[in-house]
């Protein structure tokens, strides 16, 4: 519970500061805090929100989603393979927004959240794989066939293959 209170305090200090300034400029640096706060809420089975949490979330969530939806694509271009867990944490935070925090989000923000979290089967232009050996194991057979990875694709297994040491990243 101490860790939860620490994460909660840190996160809500950030959110209150953004309310005062109106600037969500460093929202992406707070994804680890969001992740730990949400994760610990689930782990501790905390269902209700305090009045302070409710008020702050009601005031912040729509602006937060606006900033995220406008900047997420650019922000993600800064990551490398070694940052796999950071990217997955961001995805989890967005999913928590959609599930556990949906009551704090208006319809417009819900649509934006759906768009940035949707499984997208459009994988873009299919590269020419002539001359690309099988040793380039990060290209799945689905990629080589010109298909998207199906929704039931085993990402966990794929991650083990692409990043053999990914458990320690």
From TrEMBL:
Keywords: Membrane, Transmembrane, Transmembrane helix
Name of this chain's protein: Uncharacterized protein
Transmembrane segments: 14-35
